[in-house]
Specification:
It contains 11 helices and 9 strands. By secondary structure, it is α/β, with parallel strands linked by helices. α1 links the parallel β2 (about 30-35) and β3. It has helices spanning about 45-60, 85-90, 95-115, 130-135, 165-170, 175-180, 190-195, 205-220, 225-235, 245-260, 260-270; strands at about 20-25, 30-35, 70-75, 120-125, 125-130, 140-145, 150, 185, 200. Strands 1-2-3-4-6-9 form a 6-stranded mixed beta sheet, sandwiched between helices.
């Protein structure tokens, strides 16, 4: 897929500082694209790719003006999961070394999950193992009709451990048990049915159209409210609806109503005008 999001870049992000294994492009309007740039290996993960992704997400977390972050892979594949040579080397390491290695993957995924901007996975080709987990850690995922998915770790005698919190949150425990335990591959329609992805695009060109539509939609949304909405879901999910939760949610909406961003948005709506963040 071509990447026309490579215009004047978002303030505060130094693309030269990023590894060649992971590329960051962006627009002055605040749309950033993180591309795993290892097409010859179908963008498979190794220690260097994980480190570069983690650095990219850490950079974007602190960057001014980032409104939406797209995550994709170069060369028509999202990610084939773990690199086989990396896995072969890991088999020779101690349990302690493997734990440290896995923790780096866990930290990278958590950095993605915690980003305040909306995150969107754009999936072509294969999204296997950690690749599917990377998509699950995003807020939204769109895949082309020919995309393929699998949690195939069990076929190698392994388990989908570090990605499991995000996959289970996306598809539920029962689906996760069956897919983790069988390692069976599945297509885009099933991925949408279980909640792993949100939309199906006909092809790579349609994926670009969907990306540009979302980039336009997010400009209508207040960036502070987007970040607060993501925190709200994370904090409320799974909790009992009791008086304590009712009080907490009431405090949160009261805080946003009194904040500068909320007041500016309401004033703009009543005046039939654009809010200050629209079109920036």
């Amino acid at each position: 897929m071509t990447n026309p999001i490579a215009d004047p870049f978002v303030e505060g992000i130094d693309t030269d500082a990023q590894s060649k294994l992971v590329r960051i492009d962006g627009t002055a309007e605040g749309a950033a694209t993180v591309t795993i740039n290892r097409a010859s290996k179908k963008n498979a993960f190794n220690a260097e790719v994980i480190g570069a992704l983690s650095e990219a997400f850490e950079t974007l977390e602190g960057a001014d003006g980032v409104r939406v972050i797209f995550v994709t892979g170069a060369g028509g594949s999202f990610s084939a999961g773990a690199d086989l040579e990396w896995m072969r080397d890991a088999a020779q390491h101690t349990e302690s070394d493997n734990r440290d290695d896995a923790m780096k993957m866990a930290i990278m995924l958590k950095r993605l999950y915690d980003l305040p901007a909306l995150t969107v996975a754009l999936i072509e080709g294969s999204a296997f193992g950690g690749g599917a987990g990377l998509a699950a850690a995003c807020d939204l995922a769109i895949a082309t009709r020919d995309a393929k998915f699998a949690f195939s770790e069990v076929k190698l005698g392994l388990i989908a451990a570090t990605i499991s919190p995000y996959v289970i949150a996306a598809i539920g425990p029962r689906r996760a048990r069956s897919l983790f335990a069988t390692g069976r591959p599945f297509g885009v329609e099933f991925a949408r049915d279980i909640g792993l992805i949100d939309e199906v695009a006909a092809d790579a060109a349609a994926l670009v159209v969907a990306r540009d539509r979302i980039a336009g939609e997010i400009l209508a949304c207040a960036p502070g409210a987007v970040a607060a909405s993501k925190r709200l879901v994370a904090d409320v999910a799974g909790r009992e609806i009791d008086h304590s939760l009712m009080e907490e949610t009431a405090r949160r909406i009261a805080r946003t109503r009194a904040a500068e961003e909320g007041q500016a948005g309401v004033r703009a709506f009543l005046a039939h005008a654009k809010p200050p963040w629209a079109g920036q």
